[in-house]
Amino acid sequence: MTVTGLPFDDFRALLRDLPGPETAALIAARDRDRQLTKPPGSLGRLEEIAMWLAAWTGRPPAVNRPLVAIFAGNHGVTKHGITPFPPSVTQQMVENFAAGGAAINQICSTFDLGLKIFDLALDYPTGDITCEAALSERDCAATMAFGMEAIAGGTDLLCIGEMGIGNTTIAAAINLALYGGTAEEWVGPGTGSHGELLERKINAVTTAVEFHRAHLDDPLEILRRLGGREIAAMAGAILAARVQRIPVLVDGYVATAAAAILKAANPTALDHCLIGHVSGEPGHLKAIEKLGKTPLLALGMRLGEGSGAALAAGIVKAAAACHSGMATFESAGVSNQSDG
Ligand SMILES: O=C(O)c1ccc[n+]([C@@H]2O[C@H](COP(=O)([O-])O)[C@@H](O)[C@H]2O)c1
Ligand SMILES: Cc1cc2nc[nH]c2cc1C
């Protein structure tokens, strides 16, 4: 037997043929929304969120098994001295997540969200993107496939987050490769890179995109050359959720870069996603606009670890509860506008 397929082939095929929303469930939800005891449109974006849940799950809006998935990876590019924290903090924070001591643990408890942490070969950082590919095609595809397993235990709302010292540099490089401009437009302080650290970060992003320039017309090549394991896994998880029609909340600057790879491969690939929160990272709003999205929250956070998506999950749960739990004009005996 001759093996002819390349590792990305299955993902390219999946991306070509994505399922769309369920129109019948959307129409039913719109119909019910019109009957609820409120002036039309008065719940603003909560109404849009309820319709989004119905369209993607194919049933009345509900959130019964929300899950926050955090993917952790390490990056060879950190050897350039671009971050105030050492790469060992990635593993240490994974342990902190497991022990319940991180911000994300408290947000998950507050909104009753499940939390799963996926650490990705933390002892084997990716290649230094300034002079080599971050990942081989085989490693990148295997990591995307691993990310797809995040939903295997079942969920009806997936919040996508990450942890990885150096990964705001990676996100900036991906954005520069996808959208152009200058490194300065996409590089921000991350966990606190200023002065010489920030200059080296900008140089690393410029050099990396220049080094890989001849190969950046293919989004999956951008992912494997400039990305990282947590970025590849997040892309896989978002794609798997789409195939299973599970709505997704995307977290900050880094998670958005993973999502952007899918959008570049298929313009409809993020129709099942909302952006939970616009990060304080300066390039995030522009990156969100490139996806044609409006973030649900703007709280000035720049933490990552799924925090913005998890906070937005609280809003999404409230939207579903309003839609399913509110009385109708008829059931509550409240006069509707047309009743006079
Ligand atoms: O996603 C964001 O908006 C975001 C903004 C700033 C920092 N982070 C988090 O900080 C880490 C990356 O920052 P840095 O400075 O090491 O590139 C990584 O663990 C991210 O989760 C994340
Ligand atoms: C302490 C710390 C916590 C984090 N959470 C997400 N990214 C992080 C980066 C650092 C440095």
Automatic annotation (TrEMBL):
The family this protein is said to belong to: Belongs to the CobT family.
GO MF, one annotated term: nicotinate-nucleotide-dimethylbenzimidazole phosphoribosyltransferase activity
Record has Transferase as a keyword: yes
Catalyzed reactions per annotation: 5,6-dimethylbenzimidazole + nicotinate beta-D-ribonucleotide = alpha-ribazole 5'-phosphate + nicotinate + H(+)
Gene3D superfamilies recorded: 1.10.1610.10, 3.40.50.10210
The protein's name: Nicotinate-nucleotide--dimethylbenzimidazole phosphoribosyltransferase
Pfam families hit by this protein: DBI_PRT
Cited InterPro entries: Nict_dMeBzImd_PRibTrfase, Nict_dMeBzImd_PRibTrfase_bact, Nict_dMeBzImd_PRibTrfase_N, Nict_dMeBzImd_PRibTrfase_sf
HAMAP family named among the record's database cross-references: CobT
Enzyme Commission code(s) on record: 2.4.2.21
Location of the active site: 305
Keywords assigned: Cobalamin biosynthesis, Glycosyltransferase, Transferase
Species for this entry: Ciceribacter thiooxidans
TM annotation in the entry: none
Pathway(s) per entry: Nucleoside biosynthesis; alpha-ribazole biosynthesis; alpha-ribazole from 5,6-dimethylbenzimidazole: step 1/2
Function: Catalyzes the synthesis of alpha-ribazole-5'-phosphate from nicotinate mononucleotide (NAMN) and 5,6-dimethylbenzimidazole (DMB).
EC supergroup of this enzyme: transferase
